[in-house]
Amino acid sequence: MNITGTWKVTEVCVFGEDFSQSWRTAESVASDESVHPMQRAFAQSAYRFEEDGTLLSLMPKELAAGMGEPYDDDYVIAKRTKWKEENGKLFIAAEANGSDDWQEAVPTGTGYEVFGYQRIAR
Q1: Which of 13, 102, 106, 118 is the most buried (most CB within 10 A)?
Q2: Which residues contact 57 (CB under 8 A, 6 or more apart)?
Q3: Tens-place pLDDT, residues 56-86
């Protein structure tokens, strides 16, 4: 399993006003003014899996409004966390009460579903 590298968000689970959920392409979410601004930002984000087990959550500079650590010409680092592979499965650390809460990234046809609300692919 070769996870290292940059993975872009391809789909986002969008919540409607009636609390319904639906998967939509990242492009359609990013351009839909009726979608919450945070979900539009998530639709334009990416993840960078480093060889040392570091996972960088990247957000486009134009959406970061001065927040985050500079990464490159297009992105800032919104968050740093960890990833690991165990028994052929991918896990990503989410913080819970100051400790790592390892969440399995569920394989999809072209990539992974991350934290239940984003799907990523290379």
Answers
A1: 118
A2: 45, 47, 77, 78, 79, 80, 81
A3: 999 998 887 778 899 999 999 999 999 999 9
